[in-house]
Design brief:
Blueprint: E1 2-5, E2 19-20, E3 26-28, H1 36-44, E4 49-52, H2 64-86, H3 89-106, E5 112-113, H4 125-143, H5 148-159, H6 170-173, H7 181-187, H8 190-198, H9 206-213, H10 235-249, H11 261-270, H12 278-287, E6 288-289, E7 296-299, E8 304-309, E9 319-324, E10 331-338, E11 347-350
Amino acid sequence: MKLAFIRNLEGTETLAKTLYGDDGKVLLKAGNRITRDYINSFKTHGLYFVYIEDENLEDVTEDTFLSELKEESLTSVPRMFDSFTSGNIREIEHSLFLINDLVDYIAELTFINTNLYEVKSFDNYTYIHSVDTAIMSAYLGAHMGFSRKSLKELTTSAMLHDIGKTKIAPQIINKNGALSNEEFEEMKKHPIYGADILSPCSLLSENIVLGVLHHHEKIDGTGYPFGLSSSAINMYARIITVADVFTAVSANRSYRNRFNPNEAYELILSSAGTSFDCPVVERFKECFSIYPLGCCVRLSNEIEGYVVRQNKGFADRPVVRVIYDPYSKKTIQPFEINLVKYPNIVIDCIVEN
């Protein structure tokens, strides 16, 4: 399969991955032909990308089980937020069971493909961001040697890290453009609001609450709300803040375009020791990839190809399969370029194919 922009679809492609709307309902199941009517529907729902079948990339596979867990989590996050704000213990317990399933699976993974070009729309950004941050935090925690109990606490804290925003006025949360000083000061209170919501719940540990409370603190003491530094910042929060920033800048918003993969990756690496904890960033560098399988990229030598394998520890240097001439666009005998072996070649950009 490969990623394709909605605007470039011709109405003859086959959908490779089921699409869901903001309400969790199926828009179109995998295996169906994408007609012009479907394309118009995708645009109406604010979607920008879809996975389509490509016979030349038949061995490129996605982690469908993780995708299903993510989709299930996504439909449950609104109820999860509601259950904590209302104090509904039964619903809270159900939410925690869902997180357990997610953690149990992620903890066994030896490799994960962080997809910066996952299908997203503006309306469900908060919930998608919560789920993405939780998945990334869980994976980082697993590779840092966390126990299963600590992983579940970390993932719960990450899933709930922005719950305090439910107490912020919608006109501030959804504002197109820069916040005023007064609005930003109010926004900076959301970690405190989040901790206030979660603290009364006896099912949550102190570390879960502190992860939420501290997730905007920075290692150099310039964060908020308390200006904490170094070891004074909860360990869960030190992981969550990396995942939070990475997933935030990797998403389109109504007021700005997403960072490209290299920009997002370099932002995390360059902020080690200032915004982020160095050991967390080092583990992030070791275990994440930034170009999803099936993604079409253009290399610095002007050759275009599709990402077919990842090189562990080299997030921006995958294996790229070339299947057509970049100038004539005619199919050629496929060959692969392992970017680890060619340090003089880099990825210039994602190709909108």
